[in-house]
Specification:
The structure is a homodimer. Chain A has two domains: about 110 residues, Aspartate Aminotransferase, domain 1 (Alpha-Beta Complex), CATH 3.90.1150; about 240 residues, Type I PLP-dependent aspartate aminotransferase-like (Major domain) (Aspartate Aminotransferase, domain 2), CATH 3.40.640.10. Chain A is about 40% helix and about 15% strand. Chain A contains twelve helices and 14 strands. A seven-stranded mixed sheet of chain A has the order 2-10-9-8-5-3-4, sandwiched between helices. In chain A, β13 and β14 form a beta hairpin. The interface between A and B is large, with 103 and 103 residues.
Chain lengths: ~375, ~375
């Protein structure tokens, strides 16, 4: 071996062993990972074509179907974080010129619109103030007006804490030859979701919210109508890494190599989904609801007000109005630095107006609610 | 909380605690992770905007600059596996209609061409039989003929084991107003690389090869000429998740939220890069070379022949010709099942003709060479 150049040592940073603070992550995500998930992630990697890994892939697919309440064959984790799932969902079902109707009532609706435009969609939008939801009548009127090829809604808006009701929307879409696509990043594993009953054609999520696995994978599912559209595309999917017509061969029977899967992230997701199956969907959803009601009651006792109407509040994420005269950012900073608790401020329309508090998966437990309420009380009331 | 539907328990898979075999991963990747990397990955996640995570991001950037021997400011890990790095590299510097010249002498050259086409490039190719390399004269002639906006070459072809010499190519590109883009997936951290001396404008890699971190991140670096092209784009990058004009704000001074980074994967990459800095580039490259020479000598003693000329053989990946009359796939299967060693067969032109043996990062140690040679000897010679 020989080379002509001198090695530049300027960037040879000698730094310490990693030491991270023990944060209680009650913001919009990531939430704390379950210890069993972290343990699984630290097992040695095996090959992405190893028969043992193939078996694990099948288990993950099956467990995702349970969490999403779907029979969809094409149900897999995309090898990126939640936004990669969003992009995979759009990229695979949009062909240039397709009308894509997007409900924007928060930050992630805006993101859907930005992404859809990059895939050549004719993007149409309907809007609501952040924190409100769309009625079925409003959606019916918009579908009649725009005649979209795809309708995209955010089931759980992480930026606002609002839960978009989805009953009846699937039927509306089928009657109008439109695919129904939803964002379930902050609902999967914590908020009732019935993909097949709701006739959802495409959904995606993330691992770092109610599944209590670190970020790094994005569950994605395509129903039969979406798969048919994918199979009959006129153009290649305009994104190689997220092209489900290729990836489905790796996750399907032929196991054709596409890209190297993030092995240890898949170990973690499997364990996170095992925890979901052990608990059961009914029990898990009920737990999230019971625990968030503890939070809402405690906030009210501190004189704080939730931003979203009770009927449409997410159990996984609560937006709280910052009282007049309170420096919201300073409170976030004190919670982090003095109490080791992370919560977050608002985005977009809600920037400076709300705090965002997440109670997701492993974190949805009474002691976490009490610890946060205590911190807020000490900071806001000085006692 | 109420819902109308009955929960479907059909997919509620009750499965066992994860137990993975202790494979010696001597295929084309992933390689075995260093135990310190797995330990770092199992630490609890913190938020992607936490000041402590921001500090860790800076450390990773600095350590990547050392490993790549570059001063590039825009040097980050992309939140996906190696192929996401390839796509990020292309998507950010290609505008529709750009002539992109790609050297194809293996599988990953083909992949570059497929991806570049999806971003609207006018793809031109030069080809060599798999396992051979392009001479500077051949590249000069091709650049003169095609006048590309981007020239893309694979430094370390994982499918063939060939090392493409890069001296002089950067100068050629600058003289012809062309960006120089290289794939270093199987070279970063194991094979001499001098990005700045070679005047490389864009490079990407993966974590699961010579860095000995599980797959899940893809280091990417853009030099000043590439950043200028990105800043002056006429169209948005046709890929939201990989759009460096947005992501550079998160990794840059403003720290604007783009997507949630894979926190624990970044813990692992930091530790992997610390191990690189502790060892030093000169020592690391010399180790890879010394260890692979042990392998080559042992293979010769077994009567086996390497596919690539000695001068252009990669230290990180060796292709070995399968002798006439030997069932290559059966040998791979026996190594896995009887010896717990993973190696791989060939792809494309080399399918059925070669085995691929990787000695990468943590795995580049004499005992692994001896263990593999012993397994091969027992299978091929029956002793």
């Amino acid at each position: 071996m020989s080379y002509t150049y001198t090695i530049n040592e300027a960037h040879r940073l000698m730094t310490t062993q990693l030491d991270v603070p023990n944060r209680l992550l009650l913001g919009p995500g990531p939430s704390n990972a379950h210890p069993r998930v972290l343990q699984a992630m630290s097992l040695p990697p095996i090959g992405h074509l190893d028969p043992r890994f193939i078996h694990l892939m099948n288990e993950i697919q099956e467990l995702l179907r349970y969490a999403w309440q779907t029979e969809n064959s094409l149900t897999i984790p995309v090898s990126g974080t939640g936004s990669a799932g969003m992009e995979a969902a759009l990229a695979n079902v949009i062909e240039p010129g397709d009308v894509v109707l997007i409900g924007i009532n928060g930050y992630f609706g805006l993101r859907l619109a930005d992404m859809a435009g990059r895939y050549g969609a004719d993007v149409r939008i309907i809007q609501k103030p952040w924190g409100q939801i769309f009625s079925l009548a409003e959606l019916e009127a918009a579908v009649a007006e725009h005649k979209p090829a795809v309708l995209a809604l955010v089931h759980a808006e992480t930026s606002t804490g609002a839960r978009q009701p989805l009953e009846g929307v699937g039927e509306l879409c089928r009657a109008n030859h439109c695919l129904f696509l939803i964002d379930t990043v902050t609902s999967l594993g914590g908020v009732p979701l019935f993909l097949d009953e709701w006739q959802v054609d495409v959904a995606y999520s993330g691992t770092q919210k109610c599944l209590s696995c670190p970020p790094g994978l994005a569950p994605l599912t395509l129903g039969e109508r979406a798969v048919q559209k994918l199979k009959n595309r006129r153009h290649k999917v305009a994104n190689w890494y997220l092209d489900m017509s290729l990836i489905s061969n790796y996750w399907g029977d032929s196991r054709t190599y596409h890209h190297t899967a993030p092995i240890n992230m898949n170990y973690g997701l499997r364990e996170a989904l095992r925890l979901v199956a052990e608990e059961g969907m009914a029990e898990r959803w009920a737990r999230h609801q019971a625990i968030v009601e503890l939070l809402w009651q405690g906030l009210a006792e501190l004189g704080l007000h939730c931003h979203v109407e009770p009927e449409y509040r997410l159990p996984s994420l609560t937006t709280v109005r910052i009282p007049d005269g309170v420096d919201g950012k300073a409170v976030v900073g004190r919670l982090l630095n003095e109490f080791n608790i992370e919560i977050a401020g608002g985005l977009g329309e809600l920037a400076g107006k709300v705090w965002r508090i997440g109670l997701m998966g492993y974190n949805s437990r009474p002691e976490n609610v009490y610890r946060l309420l205590d911190g807020l009380k000490r900071i806001l009331l000085g006692s």
